[in-house]
Specification:
Blueprint lengths: L1 H9 L3 H10 L13 E2 L13 E6 L4 E6 L12 E6 L10 E14 L10 E12 L5 E9 H6 L16 E7 L10 E9 L14 E3 L11 E4 L5 E7 L16 H5 L3 E4 L8 E2 L2 E2 L11 E5 L8 E3 L1 E2 L5 E2 L5 E5 L3 E7 L15 E2 L4 E2 L8 E10 L8 H4 L3 E8 L7
Parallel strand pairs: 17-25
Antiparallel strand pairs: 1-9, 2-3, 2-5, 3-4, 4-7, 5-6, 5-16, 6-7, 8-9, 8-11, 9-10, 10-13, 11-12, 12-13, 14-15, 16-20, 18-19, 20-23, 21-22, 21-24, 24-25
Helix pairs in contact: 1-2
């Protein structure tokens, strides 16, 4: 099976090899949740992952990144080379999205520990888009063209055509640090949606969760469909305690359980942002606009809220108690049970002045997950567009059952 991988990546048997590699198990029988292993590529077994690289940042830190296949339908690579990575690797500010951000960084491809002489480093020109608004993703432009990288034997990977919330088997290929064998590592696991409410700091609603054996430096690495090799998501947060025994009672604590998963975000919606091989953030079907939303006193944010009872015996619903500031002069918002509905046009409020922005509407009365959706707008008359819905800020809480307050 490894031989087919090599033939397919080098193009020696064309479409027949492509069909063969898509039909087989790219994990080569790896058991889900088993320890990761270093990939040895001296015999070119893993050329199909040569486009997963180590992203070196000016700060001295590193992440992982993957070269995107943005060739047109005729298979022509006519535009720049683009990487997909985690947004926090580029610009770490919760609630912010930036476009055309200068970036002093480099990426190393063919990053296999046993073939160091074949490794190739390329400079990064800019971050075309980097977001920590409802997702944790970034698109980076490499100084080299996609055609030149393909000519150099670096294999780009395709985005998955659609997202699934059902549990499915995936692989992770990334460039974590901390190992004697410094290079790409392969891990296998199942991936599924984490849902609207995730009781783990810094994870947005509707992230995907997995229990692959990931480590520091895996942020920005691709989660891959185990049979098609398509990118299903990009790693955002790595579990700090996955490889240590669960403390007593952890299964009864949602925060403890949540902390034992890795989280990633789907990027399949970016398909529409590449026009003739060029990333176009302000296209009709893409429009990834800059966003600047700052949460006031984030340390006061609650994950759980409760209905209470006042002195008169009346039920009192909890409220959002959410203060924030926006660069936009106005905002519109709504509350939903499923965070996916944040990207639907209906039920948003009228435009409200962003001066001293404060949302304190009631949560409930239903128990369970509730999400708050906020979109900045430029004027009181501005209607929502698909572009603005692509930049919605989301926050979720869990409304727990009734709580009696002792007096």
């Amino acid at each position: 099976m490894k031989y087919f991988s090599y033939l397919c990546s080098t193009g020696l048997i064309g479409l027949l090899a492509t069909c063969a590699v898509q039909a087989r198990d790219l994990g080569e029988g790896a058991v889900n949740d088993s320890p990761s292993r270093a990939l040895q590529n001296s015999e070119h077994f893993y050329e199909l992952w040569s486009g997963v690289g180590r992203l070196s940042l000016q700060s001295g830190e590193s992440c992982s990144a993957v070269l995107l296949d943005t060739r047109n339908r005729q298979g022509r690579a006519s535009g720049p080379a683009y990487l997909l990575t985690s947004g926090h690797c580029v610009f770490f500010q919760y609630g912010s999205a930036r476009t055309n951000l200068p970036l002093n960084a480099s990426v190393t491809f063919h990053y296999f520990h046993d073939t160091p002489k074949r490794q190739r480093q390329y400079a990064i020109r800019t971050a075309r888009w980097s977001s920590l608004v409802g997702s944790d993703l970034a698109v980076l432009e490499v100084e080299a063209t996609l055609a030149s990288l393909i000519q150099a034997g670096i294999n780009p990977l395709k985005l998955a055509s659609h997202q699934t919330d059902e549990s499915h088997d995936v692989l992770n290929v990334g460039a974590p640090g901390g190992f004697t064998e410094q290079g790409l590592r392969l891990s296998a696991c199942a991936e599924q949606t984490a849902g609207t409410f995730v009781d783990h700091p810094g994870v947005f609603p509707l992230a995907m969760k997995n229990s692959c054996d990931l480590h520091a430096g895996s942020s920005g690495s691709p989660m891959l469909n185990r049979r098609t090799n398509e990118i299903t998501g990009i790693v955002s947060k790595v579990a700090a305690s996955r490889n240590t025994p669960a403390p007593p009672g952890c299964e009864q604590s949602t925060s403890c359980t949540a902390a034992r998963f890795n989280y990633s975000y789907s990027a399949n919606f970016l398909h529409k942002c590449f026009i003739d091989g060029v990333f176009t953030s302000d296209g009709v079907d893409c429009s990834l606009e800059p966003v600047e939303l700052t949460v006031t006193e984030p340390w006061k944010l609650r994950s759980y809220v409760h209905r209470t009872q006042n002195a008169d015996g009346q039920i009192v619903l909890p409220t959002w108690d959410f203060r924030f500031s926006l660069e936009a002069p106005f905002y519109r918002y709504k509350t939903v049970r499923n965070a996916r509905d944040c990207k639907a046009f209906d039920n948003y409020s009228i435009a409200i002045s962003a001066e001293d922005a404060y949302i304190n509407t009631e949560i409930g009365p239903q128990s369970g997950a509730h999400a708050l959706c906020i979109i900045g707008v430029g004027s009181a008359q501005q209607s929502l567009t698909r572009a603005s819905l692509n930049n919605v800020f989301t926050r979720a809480v869990y409304a727990a059952p009734f709580q009696v307050i002792s007096r």
